[in-house]
Amino acid sequence: MAKIIQQETFDAIIKENIVEFSMSLDEAREETISQFEAQGINLANIIKDLDINEETGNTILNEAIEGVKNHVESTKRLDDTQLNATLEALIKELNKSVPHRVLASKSCTQEYLLKIMEDEVKKNETNHAKDSILHKTILCAHAITNKNPDIFNEKSLRTINKILDTEKNEHIVCDILKWIQKACLLHELNRQMIVNEELLITHLKPLLLGRKEIEIVRNVCTCLRYLILDDDIRVEFGKAHEHARLIAHECLSDLTLLLTEFKENPDVLAELMLTIAALCVRNEFCQVVAEANGIVLIMDAMVTFHDSLKVIRESMKLLKALGGNDKVKVDIIKSGAASIIESSFNRHKADEVLAKNALACITTLSLRSKDNSTAFFESGIAETILEAMKIHAKSQVVQRNAAWAIRNMVSRSREQCEGWISLGIEDILKTAAVNHPSLDQDLRYAARDLGLQVKLKEEWKGTADKAISNE
Fold it and tell me: How many angstroms separate the CA atoms of 176 and 332, rounded?
């Protein structure tokens, strides 16, 4: 069995080499590593590249944590300038890697940071300056939680609530929201705790509606999306759908109305549309967006920012999400979306991600709808689809989505088949089949629905001991 040591032991030997033997930092580190490896010690659990204070031989991370600890415990109180410098050093170290954050977590760093925040909140200031002690402490908490969400707990959430109750500074509010986002990533229990504590109703929704700063709105939208993630492999059954339902019930109409308020800002429009699409997880929510004039607002955004790849991409995603409701799907095409979608797709067809999303949107909107399919075909979208397939011949997702879109368009509109064939669809499907053997089935079905000659593969055939009579 391999021998192991603790990080403290490794750091102590480096310090000894620097202080006692007057080695340089690099020499001390190399000597320490070679000593332990010669003794057969496995250093896989050791952070070997911690920055060292060459005057004291201590790691800068440990010195910063010790300084914060002594300040909190009143062993050695620091003035604001000293505390600011200590927090800056801590932020710099925590931002280096996950092992740095885990090591800091083991030293109760989070508890000391929360205590400093609470002390700052007790001063009853409502507009702390950017780079103030409170702001720097929040940045530390944000950094230590990044990809290390296990340290976030109920005390952290209570502290966040206290700060948001009174804080007005845009930068501090945004960094609090980013802290919440990091706590949600890869941690289902944190998401459930945040939702159960009603942070959405008490603070996120009021921030969304009451604050007009662009960065605050964008960060609130990101928080809402992170609350409906399902990315924690440690939890067998998450509550992503339940959280989406609760958030949609509280905020969906308001988010749709904000499309009007920020109609001149493409970045915010894209953020809002991405969030709305993520929340449209049920049939009735699609109807809510449509009743809030969402379809018209999406069309306006696509026309106004026709050159914005981001706006067009998120519009396609949102239209696809709304198309899950059969009634809304019809309303979308009746509003003149077919020609706008075709124009936008044609303009940006060289972008693979947009082509993928546009084809998925067409697939959804033309599903089981002859009128929608006809409107698309009359807009000239068939040519655009085929051009996209040629441009992205090596993209498996684009070829698959195109096959699905073609099938949905012609399945109830057989009169379109001749038009597709005259455009050269047969050769394009054959080329796609050669480039992407895994899509063989999808491509064959598309060719079959177009009325082309297709040799379908018999996957399985049963046998019987006795002949089966048809009589």
Answer: 38
This prediction's pTM: 0.91
- What are the DSSP calls for 104-152, one per residue? HHHTTHHHHHHHHHHHHHTT--SSPPTTSHHHHHHHHHHHHHTT-GGG-
Domain with CATH 1.25.10.10 in the chain: 336-453
The tokens describing 328, both together, are: 């809304």
pLDDT tens across 289-304, in order? 999 999 999 999 999 9
Q: Name the nearest CA neighbour of 357 among 386, 384, 318.
A: 318
Report the DSSP beta bridge partners of residue 3: 41
Radius of gyration (Cα) for the chain, nearest Å? 29
Instruction: Specify the amino acid at residue 96.
Output: K
With both helix axes pointing from N to C terminus, report the angle between 109-121 and 98-106 in degrees, rounded to the nearest 10: 80
Separation between Cα atoms, residue 59 and residue 89, nearest integer Å: 11
Collapsing DSSP to helix, strand or coil, 59 comes out as strand
For residue 436, how far is the Cα from the chain centroid? 29
Confidence of residue 46 (pLDDT cuts 50, 70, 90): confident
Strand partners, 59: 52
Distance, CA of 173 to CA of 164 (rounded, Å): 7
User: CB 189: neighbour CB atoms within 10 A?
Assistant: 15
Dist CA 12 CA 192 (whole Å):
41
C-alpha separations of 117 from 8, 150, 198, 301 in Å: 28, 20, 21, 42
Q: Please state the CATH superfamily assignment of the domain spanning residues 336-453 in this structure.
A: Leucine-rich Repeat Variant (1.25.10.10)
What is the DSSP track for 393-431? TT-HHHHHHHHHHHHHHHTT-GGGHHHHHHTTHHHHHHH
